[in-house]
Amino acid sequence: MGNGWQIEPAGVQTALTDTESAATSLSTAFDGLADAHATLTTAVGDDQAVAGAVAALIESHSELLTRVSNHITAGLAGAANATLAYYHGDEEMAATAQANAIRASRTGNFDGVDLGGDR
Length: 119
Hints:
Elements: H1 9-44, H2 49-60, H3 62-87, H4 91-107
Helix pairs in contact: 1-2, 1-3, 3-4
């Protein structure tokens, strides 16, 4: 195709798989914060100042963690959908998939973004 798009579907699939693995590890680490907080709360007993400070720290980063999650999810979906559309020769659909993913990563609104299904 002579449009400036140069995509190797096998390479994209490898990158998507690697990124999804890293995202799963990141999510597991974030989930571990809640477990660590619960353990800390139990360990400090009546002195809840430290546990409260840790809870406040976790809460203060929750919006950032949501944005990171949105960027990862949108990036994975956008790359997969744009590659699939490109592979089928639909450059307009590929560009739309890419634009929808960018919008979703910024807003958290995933309407119009295919997050899975038959590929």
